[in-house]
Amino acid sequence: MARIVVALGGNALQANPKDISAEAQLETCHHTAKAIVDLIEDGHEVIIAHGNGPQVGQIVATYEAANAQDSSKPVMPFPECGAMSQGYIGYHLQQAIREEMLRRDIKKSVAAIVTQVVVDKNDPGFKNPTKPVGSFFTEEQAKVLMAEKGYVMKEDAGRGWRRVVPSPMPVAVVEEPIIKTLVEAGHVVITVGGGGVPVIMKEDGSLEGVAAVIDKDLASEKVAELLDADELVILTAVEKVAINFNKPNQKDLDTLTVEEAEKYIEEGHFAPGSMLPKVKAAVMFANSKPGRKAIITSLEKAREALKGLTGTVITR
Ligand SMILES: Nc1ncnc2c1ncn2[C@@H]1O[C@H](COP(=O)(O)OP(=O)(O)O)[C@@H](O)[C@H]1O
Ligand SMILES: NC(=O)OP(=O)(O)O
């Protein structure tokens, strides 16, 4: 049995990026819950983290559209939208995981914790927005949005244009003691949804939300270190990390040492905003203490990967 932090990628929440309805998300969460509960059934202590890029972008856009029609309707600040996305996704995941555990007669409770993550107000990420949020647009649509709304938009790994926002590094998890207590008591915890709501800690100890989205793979890594997890499992749409990805000479990797990963990062094998933060988070975790390992694989292969049968395993 291992203590594992599982980071869920976008495909674990919205299987079809074109269908962003709540109904479709809940259905996808039911599918995702099966893979999560497989791991619980195998005896692992599971802590779940997840992304929120599409959802937080959609929440922001909904408020902006309402405000554009009627200026008396306030635009919701970005950190509040992040907190809403945590509640929205956490609600679906906890309902689906609870139901799957009930079906298998697993007597555990599951809860999503609205989690705040402290960031440094001087983080260089604030000056260079990189984190894609919301839906995908064509280049023409993106140009209109940039001109009309003042968004910064970038092409996202060959998949279309998206709004980008600052993505500072996670420094500390405010709710760490509560998460630890719940995990130690045997509960299934969903935390740092969307990387956590980014907050700055002021001199008097109070917290203030900031307009940014923390990378959920890096926030998951932070949680995995704080909880002294054995493994960080990053689930996405591919079974293995590759070099020469999408090229005729693509090579899928079974293992990756920290040294090899750093060399491949240098050579540009991992796309920024998609595979790069996953490999960076995996390297940070593997490097943080002897014996720790990270696995990058798909949701469907999670159970097999935990048994050492597939996925890319990153070790020191
Ligand atoms: N070197 C690589 N090896 C494997 N996949 C890669 C690589 N570079 C980019 N990718 C792409 O990155 C995707 C994962 O990033 P993304 O979809 O943004 O993450 P998430 O699952 O967290 O939402 C993979 O599904 C794959 O299409
Ligand atoms: N917060 C975050 O990393 O979200 P995505 O995984 O959806 O990009």
From TrEMBL:
GO cellular component, one term: cytosol
NCBIfam families on file: arcC, PRK12352.1
Swiss-Prot/TrEMBL catalytic activity: hydrogencarbonate + NH4(+) + ATP = carbamoyl phosphate + ADP + H2O + H(+)
Lineage, highest ranks first: Bacteria, Bacillati, Bacillota, Clostridia, Eubacteriales
Domain of life: Bacteria
UniProt-listed InterPro entries: AceGlu_kinase-like_sf (IPR036393), Asp/Glu/Uridylate_kinase (IPR001048), Carb_kinase (IPR003964)
Domain (Aspartate/glutamate/uridylate kinase): residue spans on this chain: 3-297
Protein name per Swiss-Prot or TrEMBL: Carbamate kinase
Keyword Kinase: yes
PANTHER family linked to this entry: CARBAMATE KINASE, CARBAMATE KINASE-RELATED
Pfam families for the chain: AA_kinase
Keyword Transferase found: yes
MF terms (GO), sorted A to Z: carbamate kinase activity
The protein's annotated pathway: Metabolic intermediate metabolism; carbamoyl phosphate degradation; CO(2) and NH(3) from carbamoyl phosphate: step 1/1
Family: Belongs to the carbamate kinase family.
Organism: Thermobrachium celere DSM 8682
CDD domains associated with the record: AAK_CK
SUPFAM superfamilies named among the record's database cross-references: Carbamate kinase-like (SSF53633)
GO BP field: L-arginine deiminase pathway
Matching Gene3D superfamilies: Acetylglutamate kinase-like
